[in-house]
Write a structure and sequence with these properties.
The protein has 85 residues and is an all-beta fold. Helices cover 0% and strands 54% of the residues. A five-stranded antiparallel beta sheet has the order 1-3-4-5-2, with no helix packed on it. The radius of gyration is 14 Å and the shape is elongated.
Length: 85
């Protein structure tokens, strides 16, 4: 899992620690709680499925506020640009 901690949301593909080149195919989001100016957010991403034959990955994502409460939850499917090695 990877956390990108910022005062505003940064998309996972801009998180250098993942080191995966991929293109988003789809994403679902559920907004669970309000977020206010000045909040500290931590976006988490977990790869929950890999399909090497189709070069696809499934990603579970959630964003926590400074109290550890989930404010957003979702899933994404991405296609890899350089294949799985």
């Amino acid at each position: 899992m990877v956390c990108c901690q910022h005062h505003c949301f940064q998309p996972w593909w801009e998180c250098r620690s993942l080191e995966i080149d991929a293109i988003y195919k789809s994403q679902t989001l559920e907004f669970l709680r309000p977020v206010f100016i000045g909040a500290t957010l931590c976006a988490w991403f977990e790869i929950v499925g890999i399909d090497p034959a189709n070069e696809r990955i499934e990603i579970k994502s959630w964003i926590e506020n400074q109290d550890g409460d989930n404010v957003i939850e979702g899933r994404a499917v991405a296609s890899l640009l350089r294949g799985l090695k």
